[in-house]
Specification:
By secondary structure, this protein is of the alpha+beta class. The protein is 37% helix and 26% strand. The chain has a 6-stranded antiparallel barrel with strand order 1-2-5-4-3-12. The chain has a 6-stranded antiparallel beta barrel with strand order 6-7-8-11-10-9. A hairpin with a 5-residue loop joins strand 6 and strand 7 (194-198).
């Protein structure tokens, strides 16, 4: 079996020392015989320049990428900070909008309270409604514990909303005048002649409900205001209901009918006032006599 021959190699330390000495000698010779080594310098420069140029290009590319990465991270950090500020401002704006809307509602209720100063009232917030786009039947956050009871009148906007049809300890159900089951004994404020305001969930989409039982001799015209009458058994007198329009005479020429534009916007209700005074039945008896 043949023995493997040992490979001859130069120790790294010796190689390093030799190269170092050679470099020193070359430096000394270049200073001593600078004119003789000019061609060598030129050749070395021609060889090294492209390499140096390539190294510089790579270095600049790496530096640019590092700067771009740093700028990107800074931009991301700034963008995150701005987004957080925007979210905070957006939330604050929503709170402010909500507070402004609530303030508007309170100012509206305050004006309405001053419009009917003789009646005691309690403010209530609508907490739910029956499943449609209109507040024809809805629930409020006040009940018997707050002095609210069945048959109490409810107002908002510029006048009558409806009547309390059910009352619990801490809630109440309100049936609005636009509901199909609603009937309000009313009168024309200018003449005192009576009529009946009937809810109509079909015509309310055109912004009106019905007025019936108008005397053929009644001196009424377009735009006359309709208010609750003194002969109503449940509604307090003098509450604004709406304005008359589209007056027609029936075929028998005995009665007139019309439409009524309510003074309350029944698709945007939020807060209401409940009049905590019931209609006095004895007062109705005296009026009837």
């Amino acid at each position: 079996m043949k023995k493997r021959r040992k490979k001859n190699f130069i120790h790294p330390k010796i190689l390093y020392m030799c190269l170092s000495v050679m470099c020193v000698l070359l430096v000394l010779l270049s200073f001593k015989f600078s004119d003789r080594f000019s061609a060598v310098k030129t050749l070395a420069g021609d060889m090294i320049s492209p390499m140096q140029k390539g190294i510089n290009t790579v270095g600049r590319s790496i530096s640019d990428k590092l700067e771009l990465l740093s700028s990107k991270e800074e931009l991301q950090a700034k963008n995150k900070e701005l987004q957080e500020k925007l979210d905070t401002l957006s939330y604050a704006n929503k709170i402010l909008t909500s507070e402004n809307a609530e303030l508007d509602n309170l100012q509206e209720l305050y004006k309405l309270d001053k419009k009917y100063p003789d009646y005691p009232k309690v403010a209530a917030t609508i907490i739910s409604r029956d499943g449609n786009n209109w507040f024809n039947v809805f629930y409020i956050d006040k009940g018997k514990e707050d002095g609210v009871d069945v048959d109490m009148n409810v107002i908002a906007g510029n006048g009558l909303v409806g009547i309390v049809s059910e009352a619990g300890r801490h809630y109440a159900k309100v049936r609005a005048i636009i509901d199909d089951k609603s009937n309000v004994s009313a009168m024309f404020e200018s003449t005192g002649e009576t009529c009946m305001v009937k809810g109509n969930m079909e015509t309310i989409y055109q912004g009106c409900i019905d007025i019936e039982m108008i005397s053929n001799t009644a001196k009424v015209k377009e735009g006359d205001e309709v208010v609750t009458s003194h002969i109503s058994d449940k509604f307090l007198p003098g509450l604004s209901v709406g304005y008359i329009k589209d007056i027609t005479t029936d075929s028998s020429n005995l009665m007139k009918t019309a439409h009524l534009t309510p003074v309350v916007n029944f698709d945007q209700l939020n807060m209401v006032l409940v009049i905590t005074q019931l209609k006095d039945a004895s007062e109705l008896g005296e009026i009837t006599k």
